[in-house]
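[User]
Protein folding is very new to me. Any chance you could explain this protein sequence and its structure tokens? I have pasted everything here:
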Amino acid sequence: MSEVFTFMRILFLVVDFLAANGGTQSPVEWRANTRSLLPEQSTALLHTKVAVIASEKAVHDLASSWCSAYRSSDPERLAAMETREIEIVDRFGDWHHLIGLKARMHFWEDGFGVVSRKDFRPACTVEHVRLIGLKVAVVQMKVSYDEGIALKNGDRIPRFSEIHTSVFVKVQGTWLITAQDIVQQNSQE
């Protein structure tokens, strides 16, 4: 049930963002609409196609940077990649509405604060990038804890993986993360 709620919240965030920023055609709509154009009209739209490719690359680069910052347990870098206001649903299903750099950094510091940093070696990969328009993308990253997580109190969380589904938005020419939903996958045997 919480996954449906989270998906609906993310969907509303995307629709709200598109409405507030004038919206754009999706790359799929763009390709379908350009098939019936004359060659000179199609050439005029080449700049849009280049913008789509550049946006996909920029989004993928931001997701890769997020993975790097997460592997490094770097709250400052993670918070810097987020919009001023972000919504995160953690792996326990708890919703966090974070406003401002201090709140965002504190969220990540709390999370990293309970783990033994010397044993914290998550693998993180960008699984999927879906550009919804020229200013919005949905990104899925897989974070795997193949050795589990050693906690500072001596306990150990067995190996598992998570899917982080994020909404990326382009704000004043910069791609940032504005929402994230973390779903834990079944333990890996």
